[in-house]
Amino acid sequence: MNKKLIIILVFILFISFIFYNNIKTIQQYEIPIVIKVTKNIGIIVDTDKLYYAANPGGYATRTILLQNQYPKSVIIELKPKELSNWIILQNEKFILRYNETRKVEITINPPSSTKVGEYNSTLIVNIKST
């Protein structure tokens, strides 16, 4: 390798390191998710958690609204903590500008082999600086 190429690679690594370390988590929320797997049809309208009711092998979708009230753009990262193979996120990572509101659909899909019962998970919402 010639000297110029090595200097360029070191510079790129340095800039990447600085950029990566400047993205800091501003705030983190944990939203409880309750999934009721049942053979019956039901509607859950409580708002203290994300409640779902679905048949084994079926699905249910809820929409949440996220609004950025920070005075600058932020990065939103959504990730289920448990049962991640059951939970489908419309958008897992995106940027919200100041005062922007975005709807995000969260779908649960318990496998057809799931036994009837209540299951719990948590949706992690990370808000990071841009």
Task: Please provide a written account of the structure.
The structure is a single chain. The protein is α+β, with helices and mostly antiparallel strands and 130 residues long. The chain has a single domain (25-129), classed as Immunoglobulin-like. It contains 1 helix and 8 strands, in the order H-E-E-E-E-E-E-E-E. It has a 5-stranded mixed beta sheet with strand order 2-1-8-4-6, with no helix packed on it. It has a 3-stranded antiparallel beta sheet with strand order 3-7-5, with no helix packed on it. The longest helix is centred in the N-terminal third of the chain and has 20 residues, at 3-22. It is elongated. The model has no long low-confidence stretch (mean pLDDT 86).
Essential attributes:
130 residues; alpha+beta; Immunoglobulin-like; five-stranded mixed beta sheet; three-stranded antiparallel beta sheet; 15% helix
Overview in brief:
With 130 residues, the chain is α+β, with helices and mostly antiparallel strands. It has one helix at 3-22, and strands spanning 25-37, 50-54, 60-67, 74-80, 87-89, 93-96, 101-108, 117-129.
